[in-house]
From TrEMBL:
Pfam families: E_motif, PPR, PPR_2
Ranges: PPR repeats: 72-106, 175-209, 277-307, 308-342
GO biological process terms held by the UniProt record: RNA modification
InterPro entries membership: E_motif, PPR_At4g14850-like_plant, PPR_rpt, TPR-like_helical_dom_sf
Cross-referenced PROSITE patterns: PPR (PS51375)
Protein name: Pentatricopeptide repeat-containing protein
Molecular-function GO terms, alphabetical: RNA binding
Record-linked PANTHER family: (WILD MALAYSIAN BANANA) HYPOTHETICAL PROTEIN, PENTATRICOPEPTIDE REPEAT-CONTAINING PROTEIN
Length: 526
């Protein structure tokens, strides 16, 4: 009878634990356990600690932990995981050390739980990670698949891809997850050939494998490669993409302006009812804005139930890109009324909107109120937007004043905007000054030389214009080849001037000749 009653009580505890959604539920369940002497059960206390962590009540979880006598490694692991999940790494390492001091041996869960917290560190994270690696070797845990996976993750997260590779090579058994981490790790440090080599060597691949490579290419500004891998994933291997894949593909579409493929992705999301997370909707807005369809971008924005600061910043930047400055400022006003706090990126988008639409008065106000009103310390990008705004509006003296009081060394983008403004308004002196700095920052950028040469020519200084062209030749500065992209059947084809690598040049020239003849005949008819 006692055995039956105990079993029934434990079953009740399990049921109560499964239904805990608030801290009051945890208090009540804990009280129920106390009155029945079940508060000494390691499994129940571990579950309570985990629930407290999930509900962000670490203080109560800590009290539960310290009041529990005769703790086993399972309890310690739960507490370590609770601290690591909240990025409280010092506490998780302290609990780990306490377990060792109490004579407990770490197991295959302990090391991964500590490493989970280490990965979130910025300063000295890799040093602490190496210490944990040494601990895993001391206790003979480094051969475990899960421990190896987290060691590879840790090294890859800090960009130590060679250390990650060493751990990978020494693993006796490797699962699919560790292969995926290595692909992502190589992509993170820009070693795309190695990432592709690993990818091709995989005996099996899942959607995470494909997404890792697609996202790596997209983040590395290799959008054509990202789109090509996506096409292969979908057409050749028949792997169904998930929402994370779609975010990566949309990023590549935004870089290329591949509207047709972007629309297909949007249609796929709707057809297969993929979860429209905030990040996915943000990616759709960005893609439509950068691919030329700001109306669709606005439709996605207006249909979103929840919006974060990234959502607002993305649509403001999109409107700015299309020259809808006043509309962008209206959206910013809506953002403020929604009590979403703007960040530094939002204000860059706002200043960019003012710049593209010549809203000098508004631009001055927002720039001067970055710190007083919005609590944002101006970055070089804010100064760059303001200088660009003043330069486009012809306020060249004021632009130089902002430049002189800027607490940063001007970058190539700022000098480039001043060079463009000097050409627009025929200011030879400013153009010379801008090119002088650009020659140091971008010695091989032919566009800068061409701009100043055009400024001289427009002002009738033909000798100076010629000397600039001569300087380009003498310094070995080659004119950047023109390039264009065309999207057809969800594939992006890139054409570079002077590059004969296209497999169908004769067919292309045949069509161009046909178009030229057609245009000549049409003009004769007119």
């Amino acid at each position: 009878m006692f055995r039956t009653t105990t079993t029934t009580t434990k079953s009740t505890i399990y049921s109560l634990l499964d239904q805990c959604t608030t801290i009051n539920h945890i208090y009540q369940t804990h009280g129920f356990m106390l009155t029945r002497g079940l508060d000494l059960d390691n499994l129940f206390i571990s579950r309570l600690i985990d629930l407290c962590s999930n509900l962000n009540h670490l203080k109560y979880a800590t009290q539960l932990f310290y009041h529990k006598p005769n703790k086993n490694i399972f309890i310690y692991n739960t507490m370590i995981n609770a601290f690591s999940s909240r990025k409280r790494v010092n506490e998780s390492v302290f609990i780990y050390s306490k377990a060792k001091n109490n004579g407990l041996k770490p197991d295959f869960y302990t090391i991964p739980f500590v490493l989970k917290g280490v990965i979130g560190l910025r300063d000295n994270g890799v040093c602490l990670g190496k210490w944990v690696h040494c601990e895993s070797i001391v206790f003979g845990l480094d051969c475990d698949v899960n421990v190896g996976l987290w060691l590879v993750k840790m090294y890859a997260s800090f960009g130590c891809v060679r250390d990650a590779r060493k751990v990978f090579d020494e693993m006796c058994v490797r699962d699919l997850a560790v292969w995926n981490v290595m692909v992502s790790g190589y992509c993170k440090v820009g070693e795309f050939e190695k990432a592709r080599e690993f990818f091709e060597a995989m005996e099996e691949r899942n959607v995470v494998s494909w997404t890792a490579l697609i996202a790596g290419y997209a983040q590395g500004n290799m959008a054509c490669e990202a789109v090509e891998v996506f096409r292969r994933m979908r057409v050749d291997d028949g792997v169904k993409p998930d929402e994370v894949t779609m975010v990566a593909v949309l990023s590549a579409c935004a870089q290329l302006g591949a509207l047709e493929l972007g629309e297909w992705v949007h249609g796929y999301i709707n057809e297969y009812n993929l979860r429209k997370s905030m990040s996915l909707c943000n990616a759709l807005i960005d893609m439509y804005a950068k691919s030329g369809n700001i109306k669709k971008a606005m439709d996605v924005f207006e249909n979103m139930k929840d919006r974060c600061v990234i959502t607002w910043s993305t649509i403001i930047a999109g409107l700015a890109l299309h020259g809808f400055g006043k509309e962008a400022l209206d959206i910013f006003s809506r953002m403020e009324k929604s009590r979403v706090k703007p960040n530094d990126v939002t204000l860059i988008a706002v200043l960019s909107a003012c710049s593209h639409s010549g809203l000098v008065k508004y631009g001055r106000w927002y720039f001067n109120n970055l710190l007083p009103t919005y609590g944002i310390k101006p970055r070089i990008e804010h100064y760059g937007c303001m200088i660009d705004l003043l330069g486009r509006a012809g306020c060249l003296s004021e632009a130089q004043e902002v430049l002189n009081r800027m607490p940063f060394e001007p970058n190539a983008a700022i000098w480039g905007s001043l060079l463009a403004a000097s050409r627009l308004y025929g200011n030879v002196e400013l153009g010379e000054k801008a090119l002088h700095h650009l020659m140091k920052l971008e010695p091989n950028n032919s566009g800068n030389f061409s701009l100043l040469s055009n400024i001289y020519a427009a002002d009738g200084h033909w000798n100076e214009s010629g000397s600039i062209r001569k300087a380009m030749r003498d310094n070995g500065v080659k004119k950047i080849s023109g390039a264009s992209c065309i999207e057809m059947n969800s594939r992006v084809h890139e054409f570079i001037s002077g590059n004969g690598s296209n497999p169908l040049p004769e067919r292309i020239f045949e069509v161009l000749s046909l178009l030229n003849r057609h245009m000549d005949l049409k003009s004769m008819h007119i």
